[in-house]
Fold this protein.
Amino acid sequence: MKKNLKRIGSNNSFIPLSDSCNGEGDDEPPSGGEDSEPPQPPSVANRLKLFGTIPDKDWNDWKWQFRNRITSVEQLSKYVSLSATRYAEISAVTGVYPLSITPYYLSIMDLNDPHDPVAMQAIPSIEEITFKTTGVEDPLGEEKDSVVPGLVHRYPDRVLMVLTDICPMLCRHCTRKREWKNGDWIRTPNDIERMLNYIRLNKNIRDVILSGGDCLTLSTKHLADVIRELRQINHVEIIRIGTRFPVVLPQRIDSEFCDMLSEYGPIWLNTHFNTVNEITPDSAAAIDRVIRAGVPVNNQSVLMRGINDTVEKQTRLCQGLLKIKVRPYYLFQCDEVQGTDHLRTTIDTGIKIIEGMRGFTSGLAIPNFTVDLPQGSGKITLQPNYIVARNEKEILFSNYLGRMINCNNTLTEQTAAPETQPADPFYNFSEVMDADRIIV
Ligand code: SF4
């Protein structure tokens, strides 16, 4: 069903009108205005220009989108104007780190903007192979925490099932870039059975995360087979699906998939929007379908230089997410992965962004700024430091406006009870309840 749409701020995104909320923090993003809007967002203009001959039936079929991914510089040059130097650079990068872009994701880029935050996530940069790298192949030590092939067990009560290394769009900042050189693979039934057996035998596992690559690359039937087995295990309370499909190929979120989700809940879905420009009518509608299947949706974004590394860009992203009912959950410091140094910024930048958001927009819009510590040492969340000074009894805080506020930090001692209770009916609880009086 089609919905009325309205623009979010000055970017090229739209949200369903029926999803906008009226409460605190529903302010428009901090800058821009509707007057500066182009007549059509890239998703419409580019589709007409680049894929105008593709009928809706194909365009809206996720398998068509998947089959027609752009995977070489030759294909890319048919859609994007590339200088000879740029062509040679992309060719050199793809010899090390391959390229894959869905037609849909290409259609939401502003191809006239050399710094378009969508294009920067998808089109290879020569800096992937020329930056002096501080990164390693496997910064999170996932290989060492794999208890059986594909199953990462790092925290006590949860495991990560890596079901495939295939993704419809290869993100230039990907933590698992190391997998790209291994070719495309999907876990065999034997591998999956070994993972399930491990989970069956470990009763402390209550939370299973299905991931990849992108596990929605698998057919819904294949996914359902895994999820059905997990649902037979009593101690598995929740299942989480980590997927970027709603952002890069939203057509994948079809009725077959949503019906399956509603059959096997509680299932949570974590997705990965990095810029408000990725919130389009198609991605908003995909999220809406997932939520209607009873699945809460969280967002895990990655902090990236030039893409989303300012207070304004993060505020616009997170407010846009709330409007499509996605909770901004994590903002990750970009992991120290080889081939991603050019996109990484400092940890201090992330803390400053949170400081610039806190108090100026709803707390719901503020993600947990998180560093996944190297060598699988675990996640830590970081906050600005609001404590200016302290002694044994008090703490001096600076609030979001920089005002100094002193707070007591001692336990209040109980005062002696009065010898006789005052004749106040509120002290006689049963009488109060009998009288049907409200005391709280
Ligand atoms: S969707 Fe995730 S796993 Fe796939 S390329 Fe992007 S960041 Fe990597």
Notes: The chain has a mean pLDDT of 87. The pocket of iron/sulfur cluster is lined by residues 167, 170-171, 174, 176, 212-214, 244 (CB under 6 Å).
